[in-house]
Amino acid sequence: MSELSKQLELLWEQASEAHTAIQRDFSDIDPLIGVSQNMRKQGIPADVMTIDCLRTRKRIIIILHDQQPDIVSYQFAGMDSDPEGDFDALAFEKVTEKQIYQWIAEYFKNPL
After folding, report:
1. Which residues does 23 contact at the CB level (< 8 Å), separation at least 6?
2. 100 close to 107: Cβ distance less than 8 angstroms
């Protein structure tokens, strides 16, 4: 993770803390957190974090765009399909461990 931006590192830490709390509180939800810089490698100045649930086949996609460093774009999607429609946006400072925990707990509790 040495190549990651400060914001992505902070987001990763918050997601990791949320992950630990989710595992403590929900035995049936074991999210997988991943970071991808494939968009950046394709010339798009953005990084992506995904949070997946293998049981429900759901995915939370979080994008950090270089041009909008104070905004986080996110979408609730399925693991087996490409994202559809517009992404929602939230101020970076509002994407906390608590917010990520809520997203995971609420979105992953039932299958698609």
Report:
1. 29, 30
2. no
Residue whose pair of structure tokens reads 């989710």 in the numeric block:
22
Cβ proximity of 15 and 23 under 8 Å = no
Tell me how far apart the alpha carbons of residues 1 and 109 are, in angstroms, rounded to a whole number. 30
- Cα-Cα-Cα-Cα torsion 70, 76, 77, 82, nearest 10 degrees, comes to -20
- pLDDT tens digits along 20-43: 999 999 988 989 999 988 888 999
CA–CA distance, 41 with 47 (Å, rounded to integer): 10
Integer Cα distance of 12 and 43 in angstroms: 22
* This prediction's pTM: 0.90
Q: Give yes or no for a contact between 73 and 92, defined as CB atoms under 8 angstroms apart.
A: no
